[in-house]
Amino acid sequence: MWNAIAIGSHRTYKKGVQFLAKSPVSATDVPMELAITIDVEEEGLFRKSYESRTDLTGNVECLAKLDHVFRKHGIKPTLFVSYAVAVHSSHRAFLSDLARQWGAEIGIHLHHWNTPPLEPLPFPQPTPSELIPVELLRAKFNNVLDVVREMNPNPVSFRMGRFNLGAKMFRVLEDSPIQVDSSIAPLRTEYGGPDHLTAPSDPYFPDSSDPRRPGHSRILEVPITIVPIYPGIGSLAEWISSLSQATKYLVRPATKYLASLSAQPMATGLRRLKAAARLHQARQGRTLTLYFHSSELLPGGCPQHNTEADVTRFIDKIDAFLDWAIEELEARPLVMSKLRDLYDTSFADSPAQGSETDPREQASGMDMKERSRAG
Ligand SMILES: [Zn+2]
């Protein structure tokens, strides 16, 4: 019986994806902003090895493989660069050139397990940021900030390694020049937490004490686009995972593979990418945020891409998706800092979309304008 239910559910899911991917854009849908973000980082992380030191950064030059696609679509990506990469002057020169050619923005990517100072902690790596003393997190952040400044004197955008953002790391960001963060992966859980199961799918100004929900911070949070299939499913998943360790481990694959649609090109087919984007737009989502890693452009750099042909297929998929998103959704490519400007001004009167929080608790337009002045 369970098999029949599982097969039936899978068929329903597939039909839903097909329907969404082909559904026409309605007159009430607004054009979307399109943020393409790339974590520019060392190799080896897909082997689940979190070394405290690494020199495996040859993949960075593979970013040039995206040149024809980005130029064709006018993509202005945001490059979140890790310490292991930014510490090399040759990579800094290469990335600075690329940023100039593409109109890209260079931001900060903190891999807390290999960014100095390296102090032993009594937890397995990658140690969740909530278990790291805040002053140690701050020192690591300042070190990566220093090397990234050699390329971009005023970096304002940030992403935390493994999307491991909680209140502690957010406090470090609020005390820094960072204005826009993209470290929330909605409907996802990570080792040691904090879980992002109930986080909004569209940009919002977070609550400083819990960046997973809207509030009054001056920093704009730009989650990667992952959309719940049923609104409220994140809260249900959070409740189930609070019951026991066993249910917690059940929730992780269920929310990832059944309860959400991901607009992330890695391991997502073109049809599901389109379905996720359409569902997000239909729910009044205003920004489509995609991300992938520079190492995915290197054959052998991730488990899915063993050959150059695999990498080419991946880039072709991104190309086809961008074709569709720009044509069908009227998606407009822009960098993170421009997105923050937009949410501070043009979008300031609208509440955050895709949140599971009570809309009455969401920040009002006036709150956003006050924050804009403060920021
Ligand atoms: Zn990373």
Short account of what is shown:
By secondary structure, this protein is of the alpha/beta class. The chain is built from 12 helices and 12 strands.
Describe this structure in words.
This protein has helices at residues 2-22, 67-73, 83-86, 89-102, 134-148, 167-174, 233-243, 245-257, 270-282, 308-328, 336-344, 365-374, and strands at residues 33-40, 78-81, 105-110, 157-160, 180-181, 206-207, 210-214, 220-221, 226-228, 260-262, 287-293, 332-333. It is an alpha/beta fold and 375 residues long. The protein has one domain: Uncharacterised protein PF12979, DUF3863 (TIM Barrel), CATH 3.20.20.510. Strands 1, 2, 3, 4, 5, 8, 11 and 12 form an eight-stranded parallel sheet that branches. α6 links the parallel β4 and β5 (180-181). α5 (134-148) packs across α6 (167-174). Bound molecules: zinc ion (ZN). Zinc ion binds next to loops.
